[in-house]
């Protein structure tokens, strides 16, 4: 089959672009379409403006909420699998993200049944575990794509008999140009006016839209309480509201909650430091976007992004123990006190992020599509 006419079927339950998995599906689908592929998206929700994208929408009926999430999730997995299989007849390649039972390429975004290893007492989402484990065991699965190296060992710990030759590690992507459209000066001037942030303050930023227990807001609050003697910083929360997690009252006068934004690029380039002390996070897009914005990072070693920053940056930017508020406060204090260090780390992060452009990530997936297409009986042209 001519590569230009390959049929690619993406399966993503909620393709709203708010999550990392739906962003990957959307970005890859757009680039596949531009290369002349026949692209379909199987989902129950679609991003705004999809009608003009050229990607063919395959909507799966969704049961009403009163039947329960367990039933709704499995219902989608079953119908989506059938729809995708039908579309793939004749050699198409199904690329799924853990929401269906059958896919030839499975990009795993999180190992949610393993969180108790990092978060004592945390119970896994039983529905997600059920669907993903069935997907792992499906004989049609050709490739399992992991978004960080630490996920490889997590999978082998959970499924020691899994065929590791199917593993591929491909990090998420980023659009570097998106974070250069707005200048630092323009962003700071606008938000200073809107929020009343003191002129000259150093902006710390955290960006995520949920699961704040996993992302360790408690330790972050404890660390910042230790830095109250410094009046030169302010904390910005992008994607979060004040009522979504407990936050020390003593820090409220220097904390700003921006909620969900259509474009995180209108804030990140104006900040001075990204703080992300998660107990565990496989490969958060927000950290890669902060890197593309030229920000230094303070991240936990259990965050996948720590694998792609430079060796020099790891020395001062990686939190070894996510529960150690003293160490986190020390790392932030070092960053706040050393402008040249922040500038150097930010430039190194920006350079590293350029290697993870969506175009570069798509080329890696395109190789997988060719390989899997051949296994499906295809003979893609080189």
Q: How would you summarize this macromolecular structure in one to three sentences?
A:
The protein is 37% helix and 15% strand. It has helices at residues 20-34, 69-88, 126-137, 149-158, 184-195, 217-225, 285-292, 311-317, 325-337, 339-354, 358-375, and strands at residues 7-11, 38-43, 56-59, 93-96, 105-108, 143-146, 167-169, 202-207, 233-238, 255-259, 273-276, 297-300, 318-319. The longest helix is centred in the N-terminal third of the chain and has 20 residues, at 69-88.
Explain this structure to me?
The chain contains eleven helices and 13 strands. The protein is α/β, with parallel strands linked by helices and 382 residues long. The chain starts with 6 loop residues before the first strand and ends in a 7-residue tail after the last helix.
Topology:
Layout: E1 7-11, H1 20-34, E2 38-43, E3 56-59, H2 69-88, E4 93-96, E5 105-108, H3 126-137, E6 143-146, H4 149-158, E7 167-169, H5 184-195, E8 202-207, H6 217-225, E9 233-238, E10 255-259, E11 273-276, H7 285-292, E12 297-300, H8 311-317, E13 318-319, H9 325-337, H10 339-354, H11 358-375
Helix pairs in contact: 1-11, 2-3, 6-9, 7-10
